[in-house]
């Protein structure tokens, strides 16, 4: 697992700032969400996030370097990989649950036509044996 030295952070350095250095880029937590939901292949992660392929490739490399995801080959020619959350990645699921609750209350209108009646918490999905 990669860590960030507080002395290297600008402004008021704290663990929040250090965490955001690792997972604060726009697509990082959405990549974690997609893997937790069972999208373990690159094309499925891209489709689930809606992000450009190059951004997801960069995020996956950064998340792997940080010890949040691992990749394992599933095809040799051309090389293709599946991604899984590490223990560190699974530890982010309560953060996603908190963002989900905050988003339901403060970021999405109750009458939004695309809003689902119920969202399952990420931690509940992992307990049920989802990736």
UniProtKB/TrEMBL annotation:
The keyword Electron transport does not apply. One of its GO terms (molecular function) is DNA binding. Pfam families: HxlR (PF01638). Keywords: DNA-binding, Transcription, Transcription regulation. Signal peptide: none annotated. The keyword Transcription regulation applies. Residues 109-131 are annotated as: Disordered. Residues 14-111 form the HTH hxlR-type domain. InterPro entries: HTH_HxlR (IPR002577), WH-like_DNA-bd_sf (IPR036388), WH_DNA-bd_sf (IPR036390). This is HxlR family transcriptional regulator.
